Amino acid sequence: MKLEVQELRAGYGAKLVLDGVGLTVPEGSIVTLLGPNGCGKSTLLKVIGRLLKPKSGNVLLDGKAVHACDTAALARRMAILPQLHHASGEITVNELVGFGRFPHRTGLGVMNAHDREVVAEVLRMTRLTELRNRRIATLSGGERQRAWIAMTLAQQPQLLLLDEPTTFLDIRCQFEIIELVRDLNRRLGLTVLMVLHDLNLAARCSDRLVTLKDRKVRHAGTPQEILRPEILREIFEIEAEITTGKDGVPYFIPTGTARNPQEDRQ
Ligand SMILES: Nc1ncnc2c1ncn2[C@@H]1O[C@H](COP(=O)(O)OP(=O)(O)OP(=O)(O)O)[C@@H](O)[C@H]1O
């Protein structure tokens, strides 16, 4: 499913966070948003996921405005995992993943055989079958994050929005989550827009990177086009060396903070 954002203006009250933001996520691709803390990445995902109403502009899914879509129909096409998500720790993994079937339920809203099959398949995909009867409160951070992603997958979306899905995870779990997303993208053709803070992880798993700063999109391109010292200096105010791994993926090594020319003038 193709996602297009056009001339988006959004914020909170009088505070404008996004001003004229545009981006395209081609069908079947993984696009990652990068930018400093507070630049509006989560706000952008919230507007796309219809958790926040924009002041103006368009969000189009396969050419159709999301803000005109019926909520249940939209939830069958798009799933969002916000940065902070809460559920009672008392529910089991199986129950949490079952919540993902809500938009598909009919009649009295009970799970039917097909819903149960989807949940079982998603648990297999995310390697949670063994843990299905465990309470969320008893899971490790990585297992819990996998359970949340499994819940969004049970929605069987064509577009997945993930806000910092690897935060608080150790390096192995970070890779596991990213490999899971990549695998789902390849096998199911899932279109993904996510926010990551780890530039090397982002370069490894994304088809395209988009940078955001001062309310606007600054750059969009392949990891090779975006992971460049001058871009990292502009966006994050850091100095960095960029190397290319044996697999052709660029990675960066931070070497210091960049001087801010405005501060120099004062
Ligand atoms: N509910 C809210 N009410 C008022 N201001 C908000 C609200 N949510 C976010 N903001 C402000 O909007 C700006 C953008 O926040 P947002 O969470 O979108 O940034 P971000 O790029 O996702 O940041 P981070 O990398 O730290 O997660 C920040 O200045 C933030 O303080």
UniProtKB/TrEMBL annotation:
Residues 3-239 form the ABC transporter domain. One of its GO terms (molecular function) is ATP binding. GO terms for cellular component: plasma membrane. InterPro entries: AAA+_ATPase, ABC_transporter-like_ATP-bd, ABC_transporter-like_CS, P-loop_NTPase, Siderophore_ABC-ATPase. It comes from the Bacteria. CDD domains: ABC_Iron-Siderophores_B12_Hemin. This is Iron complex transport system ATP-binding protein. It comes from Victivallis vadensis. The lineage of its organism: Bacteria, Pseudomonadati, Lentisphaerota, Lentisphaeria, Victivallales.
